[in-house]
Amino acid sequence: MPFAWPYQLLADAVLVAHLAVVLFVVAGLVLVVLGNRRHWPWVNAPAFRLAHLATIAVVVAEAWLGLVCPLTTLEAWLRSRAGAPVDDSRVLEHWLQALLFWDGPPWVFTAGYTLFGLAVVASWWRWPPRRRRADPSPAATPPAAGPTRARSPARPAPPAGGQW
C-alpha cells in the first residue's frame, strides 16, 4: 500500500495517546493522595479533579457496558488501513501494547476498573476539590464590616511659648 505510512504513524500516535490517558488516570490518583499529604494545593484544583474523575468514569462505564475503548478501536482501524495486521508489532508498539493490553477474563478488568474508580471517588470524599484562595494581601482584603469611628484630627501643635 503506497500511502500506508500516515496510517501507521497515526496508529502509533493513538497508542501513545492511549498510554497517556492510562498514565493520567493512575498517576492522577497517586498525585492527589501524595499531594494532599504534602500540602500541594494544585492537586485539588477543580479542573484537574473533574478531568480525572470523568476519565475514570468513562473507563468504568465502558467496562460495565462491555464496550471496547474507542482508542483501541481507532488504533486497530488505522493499522488495518495501513495494511498491517493488527497484532503485528514494531518495537514501540510491542512495548506500549504490552503495558496496556493484558490477557484475562473481562470480569477481572471490570472489577479492577470499578475498584480504581471507587478509590478516585473516595479521594473526592477525603480531599474534596477546592478553588484557590484569593490573594490575601491587604489591598485585596475588603474592609471589616460594621460601624467605624471617624478618627479625630491630630492635636494641633501648642503655640510658640509652649502654653495655651
TrEMBL record:
<feature type="region of interest" description="Disordered">
    <location>
        <begin position="132"/>
        <end position="164"/>
    </location>
</feature>
<keyword id="KW-0812">Transmembrane</keyword>
<keyword id="KW-1133">Transmembrane helix</keyword>
<feature type="transmembrane region" description="Helical">
    <location>
        <begin position="15"/>
        <end position="35"/>
    </location>
</feature>
<protein>
    <submittedName>
        <fullName>DUF2784 family protein</fullName>
    </submittedName>
</protein>
<feature type="transmembrane region" description="Helical">
    <location>
        <begin position="107"/>
        <end position="125"/>
    </location>
</feature>
<feature type="compositionally biased region" description="Pro residues">
    <location>
        <begin position="155"/>
        <end position="164"/>
    </location>
</feature>
<dbReference type="InterPro" id="IPR021218">
    <property type="entry name" value="DUF2784"/>
</dbReference>
<keyword id="KW-0472">Membrane</keyword>
<feature type="transmembrane region" description="Helical">
    <location>
        <begin position="47"/>
        <end position="67"/>
    </location>
</feature>
<dbReference type="Pfam" id="PF10861">
    <property type="entry name" value="DUF2784"/>
</dbReference>
